[in-house]
Amino acid sequence: MKALGEAAVDLPWLSPCASSLIALARAALPSVWSQVRTDPGLVLLLARVWGTRSHCSLACDADLLQEALTHLTDPGFTRWDKPGAAFVYRTCLRQARLATALAELVPGCDATKAWVGGLLAPLGWLAACAVDPAEVQRALESAQANADPSRWGLDPSPIARRLGTRWHLPAWLRAVLGHLALPADIAETLGADRLLFQVVQLAVLLCRNAAPSLDLPVGASVGELLTALRLDTAQVETIAGEIFQADEPEKTWQAPAEQPLLADLLDLALRNRRQAAPVAEPELHRSIDRLHAALETQAADQDGRLQALKLSALAEFAAGAGHEINNPLAVISGQAQYILKQLQALDGPADEIENAAEFIDHVHTKVVPSLHKIVGQTQRIHAILTDLMQFARPAVPKAQTVSAAAVVRDVLAAVHALGEQRHVRIVCPEPAADLAFRADPVQARTALAALVRNAIEAAPADGWVNVHVERHAAWIEFVVEDSGPGPSTLAREHLFDPFYSGRSAGRGRGLGLPTAWRLARHQGGDVRFEGSIHGLTRFVLSLPAAGVPDAPALNGVHGHHAEPNGALLTEAHA
Amino acid sequence: MKTVFTTGEAAKICKVSQQTIIRCFDNGQLKGFRVPGSRFRRIPREMLYKFMKDNGIPTDALESGKRKVLLVDDDSELVEVMTKFLEEDGRFEVRVASTGFDAGMLVKEYRPDIIVLDVMLPDINGKEVCQRVRADNTLEDVRILCISGMIEEDKIQDLKLSGADDFLPKPFDAEVLIDRMCALLEIESMDTTTA
Question: What ipTM was predicted for this assembly?
Fold first, then answer.
């Protein structure tokens, strides 16, 4: 007799329950999904259909029926209420419910896929149940609640990996089935959908912490996952508590073989659905026409809304720009008034000015400095407008391969004085020599300098700023962290809006972050805010990675020296 | 320039107790009047001056009579030109703070008559500075004149609700600034008090 593990790997399928297949024959999958999704066999069948498609959705009835018909007489049915199987099944259901609930809190994470991932994560155990539930029960009762490889031949995880490949399950699901023990970064290179992967990891961990479970190994901690997914601990605890307390509805498990007419029913349903397609076509055309009509009306509305949006953005911008420019204007106006006052003091008949030297001296001491101040302030306004232009319409980027280390050196040299003035320590490990990206070097440097400057200004006195460079597949990422409190929740929405006037305090032209963002986008890159945690605020500038650098340093003057350990350190208040 | 004093103010200027001033007022040594409809005593400037001369009290405290201004703005160039105007005017003694935090410290120590306050400070918002000053009842006589390049009407309303007495948008006319300050400090306008 084959060892349990090997037999599990050879399973042709996990057979759905007869009632699930009947439901599927009666109505389309989306309308019966809530009823059949608790059947591991049916969910697995859906995953196999997804594996043959580029898009995972519930709209795949005919293929699903076809797949069910193909395997209908194959072995692989399990009664999930039997000892052994019942424990595995309960864990799967809890994981699925929890993963779905978590996915709903994580933007960009598909709740249906999360259900499938959570339910099928212990696929090795599910398959083992289909082969020998009594043996599973024995393994569960043993002290470690772990499969005994010498008896099974294979552990549940390798069983799951082999079945995932043999049944052509989609890559994101295979990552969940066999690689939960890996960190998300590595799983991603194996095809994992990062958010979904982490959601399932978290669901598995929470189940394991709350009740006896299957001890699936997970390559992250609850804390790390909550942070990575930006979930609120208390909220997650409430949701998990509700799910663990909910009773599972009773379900009767009936093998397809016990329903002699099932094959005919499925066959009929399949033919009906295939025939229904052409009949539905005119109806489909009519709905498309209706959609087009609706779209046109909406487009007309959209014009009006766009106009209103433009005006409101312009008002916000004008208020912000006004605020920035009114300050230098106040100085100009003040100095000009002062000059006028001085000249009025000199008013009178020319012959009253007895001493020409005194007159010239008066002009020199009272008037000339004011005139210089006025010139200085016009330059200040000019600089604001130049920055603004750079944001609104940056020059066409002259892309070349640039060494990350060179850009970091240039930026550190440029911000050194500011760090010193504000007593902020700037720490920057020397980036690896082979890290290079493809962008306009001047614009990339401006973007990074704006981020670092922003960090220095945000850090408290005697705080620090940390800059380091990472490579992520096709991207070079400049990570800029500071020890400041981070922007307020309200300000976060407007981080990249020029002159955001909702700021309640703070100086600066309000153009640093927007310019960094604009220039990064201009190179095909991005700037993102990665949140404030544990007294650390992080912004990331990503630029497209390149091979070997062909551009030398941007300018030769660097006020830095490499530390013996290879770290570039600018001591602001040494 | 302040033209009428309360007995408390007169006591401070003469460096004697308020009781002494009241006694002198009541026995006719120090001339003055009572606010119509009440018993509050008021002493005109010239009467106080005569009283001080008669009794050999140094009059420089009265003659200086400069009003204390706390100028709060982080734009050093603007502070410079405003200080120039205020000091050359002759009626003001000026001290400067460039952050909301410094302003909070200085208000207590310097006890200004008026704060000229920029709303957008590097650390805390001017509105908060207003609220903090207003929350301290030992500072209730301090006038607050806000200045800002911010021009939204609702925000100005907000400032006034937080305790600002007046608001002046940047850029402003220096004479208007001084006139508004005088109005808040109940100093008579330039033309009548100085030649």
Answer: 0.70
